[in-house]
Every structure is written in C-alpha cells, then in structure tokens.
Amino acid sequence: MKKDSYNAFVAAQTQFDNVADKLNLDPAIRELLRQPSREFHFTIPVKMDDGTTKVFKAYRVQHNDSRGPAKGGIRFHPDETVDTIKALSMWMTWKTAVVDIPLGGGKGGVVCDPREMSLAEQERLCRGYMRQMARNMGPVQDVPAPDVMTNAQHMLWMMDEYEVIHGGRYPGVITGKPVGMGGSLGRTEATGYGVIYCLRESLKNLGIDISKTTASIQGFGNVAEYAARLYTELGGKVVAISCWDNKDKKSYTYQNLDGIEIDKLATIKDSFGTIDQEKAIALGCKKLDGDAWLSQDVDILIPAALENQINADNFDKISPQVKVLCEAANGPTSPDVDPLIKERGIYLIPDFLCNAGGVTCSYFEQVQCNQNYFWSKEEVLEKLDFKMTTAYHAVHNLAQEDNLYMRDAAYVIAIKRVAEAVTLRGWV
Ligand code: NAD
Q: Per residue in 147-205, pLDDT tens?
C-alpha cells in the first residue's frame, strides 16, 4: 500500500477480514464488527480571539459497545479524516478486548491545529465539542480520553461543559483528567510504560538481554517519552528519536550513538512533542532527516507518532539488525508490510496490544472515580504491569501454540471476546 493510497479504515478492515476468514466468523457478526455502530459528524463554531468565527469539522465514532461503554481518545489534527477516526475506533474495540477490560471502542477527532490556536480558543473548541456530543456521551455510554495533540486540560474543559449541561458531577465521563481533578496517578506514564512492559517480556521470550539493546523511536510525545524513559531505566540505549517540527513543517531525527539522555531531551521539547533543534545539538545530538529513525542499526524500532509510517515505500530501509518492532502508535504499519515483517523474522508487538496501557489506566481511573478513592502511583503501575504482562503472554502463547503471526494472535483473542459478547447479548 503506497503512502498516498493509504486509508486507515481500509487497513483496519483488511486486518480484521484476514482473521475473520481464519476464524470462520459468523457472517452477521462479521458484518456487524467490520463497521462502526454509530458515527457522528458535526461542526463546531468557535469565536476566535480576533472576533471572527471559525467553523471546525468534528467526528465521534462508536465502533462497538457490547463489552462496555465505548472508549477512546479525541484527537486534534489538521489532517484528520473520518476514515482515520473509524479505523482508530475499531482498533479501540480490539484493544479493550485484548487486555480484557469491560469497555468497547470509540474515537473522536477535530480537524484543527491547536499549535496555531490560543488556549482560550482551544477551551471554546473543547466546550463546543462537548455541547455537540453531551447527549450521546457519558460514563455509561461513551468515555473519551486524550490522544494526539489533546491533553488533561482539554479533557477537564470537556468534563466541565458536560457537568454544566447535565447539572451534576460526572468524573466518569472522561479520562486522562488532571490528578486532583479525578485523574489517576500514572496515567501520563501508562501508555509508554505499557509499551515497555510488553517489550521487556518479549525480550525475555527471545532470550535477549535488554541492557545490551539499542532502540530508535519515531515521535517524542506522551507515548514516546515515557517509553524511552522506562526503556533506558531498564538498561536499554535510545540512539535516535524523530519528531515533527511545526515551524519548518517537516520532521527531523536526532541521533546520538552514545545514547540520548532522555531526561534532558524532555526538558527541551514543547507540549506538542517538538524538540528544540539548537538545544538538541547542544545536548550532543546530530540532526538528520526525519525518516532517518527508520534506517538506524538498532535492535528495536518503536514507531510512536502516527499511522502508516512503515509501508511498502520505505520498508527496505529497515536495518537487518532490527529484531523487535514495537507498534507504540496506532496503525503505524500498513497491512502490505505484514508479509515482509514475517519474512524477515522481525518479532512484532502489534499496536492494539502494545499501546493498550493508556486505556487500561483510563479504566483504572474510572474505577477510582466510581469508588471516589484514589490509589498510589505504585499501586496503579503495579496493576498496569500485571494487566499488560498477562495480555502480552496470552497473545505470545497463542502465537506459539497455533503458529500464528503476533498480530493475528492478538486479533483472534480480541475478536473472539467481542463476538462472544454480541452473541450473549442476542444481537446476532
Ligand atoms: P503526541 O501528540 O503527544 O505526540 C506525537 C509525536 O509524534 C510528537 O512528538 C510529534 O512531533 C511526532 N510526530 C508527528 N508527526 C511526525 C512525523 N511525521 N515524523 C516524526 N514525528 C512525528 O501523541 P501521543 O499521545 O504520544 O500519541 C502517539 C501515538 O500513540 C498516536 O498514534 C496515538 O493514537 C497513539 N496512542 C496514544 C495514547 C496515549 O495515551 N497518548 C494511547 C494509545 C495510543
């Protein structure tokens, strides 16, 4: 699948169909699960600081809620499309199922660029989003969370608007809230740490000592930063990190073969995960082309930015040294490179397993809000590690037993759970 012909929803359906064929899935269940249950398309008029009104296009897609309320982030991105949101909502259904938490799958997005909006404009956009969705969202219907270019503050504005509309306190309406305002300790770290819990276990299975490994990462946002932090804490060496630079409208890779000091790099990035070019060079990094992260001679590749970053156009740039591909982003690999990954014998940790730490911690956040009692960070991370490690081994073991590709094994577990839920409910 060439970069320009890539469609995330087609990719998500292709992956699903491959496994549905293998499972001989009932045709009605298949028809139900290969598309979203509900899709909302709406506009949000926002008064801008200069007095004009700008109208933003927005979406919320609820793919499936048979195992619990729909769950998934809201993304702000100038290139957002409804097909990307549909794919992401479908992947959320598999994600909540593979880690076995009582939630379904949903996703939202607004076509906007928050990097070019003031905080006041962003607040009005968040409140406008919730005004449009307040009747179809809620703790027992559909629960959003942060995603690309949205954060705890955006979530709190949305929660506040929901509470104004419904007249009460509903901390369970949204997750990823600030700590002290219904947020969970450990949520900031959760997705990145979950990636590394899976990586840690996979390296044990492969007989590789993590402290002798090197990694290259695409992205330095929430997921990538905390994955890099835990990986280096466990002894690994990150030699390259790439990020988008909004000023130059292109991406760069920062490389340091002696190992990038993640703590220091984190102090020179902005809230959108853009690294300051001059300061990175002062830290001893070489500035390379944006796609150089992919061709590094490393053991581990961690795409943690956006979808379709590894595709038929660039797969051959991957070094023969690479042993593990950790899909920290959603859909970073297009379906047509799956055969190439298998052929090369690269061990894959598929996206909806690899990055499920965020939604697992969001679930913990809901549990804590429901009981109105909050756990320590150690307790949250211990429970998270247990959930992620259990899910990872279930997928790995099934792949070994049935000689399945890791992505297919994860799909088999997830699809079977969702198929069982829709059957038990009598929907099909
Ligand atoms: P973020 O907005 O915090 O960071 C995104 C990073 O990607 C930034 O560093 C940005 O500069 C970089 N980037 C964007 N385009 C790039 C390009 N073309 N080349 C190189 N770098 C580029 O986002 P995030 O929350 O870290 O999410 C990253 C991915 O992980 C997304 O696919 C998201 O859906 C997925 N994800 C996030 C969470 C979560 O809890 N945040 C949970 C599960 C999955």
A: 999 999 999 999 999 999 999 999 999 999 999 999 999 999 999 999 999 999 999 99
Can you point out the beta strands (E) in 313-359? Answer: 324-326, 347-349
Domain edge (last residue) among 136, 170, 204:
170
The answer to whether the CB of 149 is under 6 A from ligand 1 is yes
The three-class DSSP label of residue 60 is strand
Percent of the chain with pLDDT strictly greater than 90: 97
Look at the pTM and tell me if it is higher than 0.90. Answer: yes
Backbone angles phi, psi at 57, to 5 degrees: -90, 135
368 belongs to a structural domain: no
SS3 328: coil
Active site residue 247: no
Q: Which long-range contacts (CB under 8 A, 24 or more apart) does 209-213 make?
A: 210/234, 210/235, 210/236, 211/235, 211/236, 213/237, 213/298, 213/299, 213/300
CA of 401 to the centre of ligand 1 (A): 33
Q: Is 305 in the pocket of ligand 1 (CB under 6 A)?
A: yes
Residue-number span of the structural domain to which 210 is assigned: 188-349
**Could you say which of 349, 378, 399 is where a domain stops?**
349
Note whether 154 and 41 are same-domain residues: yes
The total number of structural domains that make up the chain: 2
Clarify whether residues 219 and 157 are in a common domain: no
Which DSSP letter does residue 11 get?
H
User: What is the reported pLDDT for 39?
Assistant: 98
Are the C-beta atoms of 170 and 159 separated by less than 8 Å?
A: yes
Cβ of 356 below 6 Å from ligand 1: no
State the CATH number of the domain containing residue 264. 3.40.50.720
